[in-house]
Design brief:
- The protein is mainly β.
- The protein has one domain (about 1-25, about 40-90).
- The chain is built from no helices and seven strands.
- The protein has strands at about 10-15, 25, 45, 55-60, 65, 70-75, 75-85.
- The strands form three sheets. The protein has a three-stranded antiparallel beta sheet with strand order 1-4-7, with no helix packed on it. Strands 2-3 form a two-stranded antiparallel sheet.
- A hairpin with a 6-residue loop joins β5 and β6 (about 70-75).
- About 0% of the residues are buried.
Length: about 100
Amino acid sequence: MFFPENCDSICSGEYVFSRDIEHASVIPGTELLSWETGSYKDWPEIKLEGTGNVIRLDLRIPRASTSVCGEFIPIPYFNIWRKESEVEKVTPILNFNIFNDAHG
């Protein structure tokens, strides 16, 4: 799949993961509002490629516009990779409004 290379990261997060973890579940944020540790759902997973103890997640939002009215349409995607690093503080991406916060 092709992703634009000339699109800067809008925000980033770093997460500490065990080197043994090869897959991470993708859980909608709304599900975390009523999280029950005893329940299990079959969430989609992504493979965590590479080596290292830190997962870096970059949000990128290329711009597109409609041909009818020329309005900005965000097309968000994440780059994710592992790296070896000492992290003093985990910096998650907790909230981001792709319509209001994206520059352009």
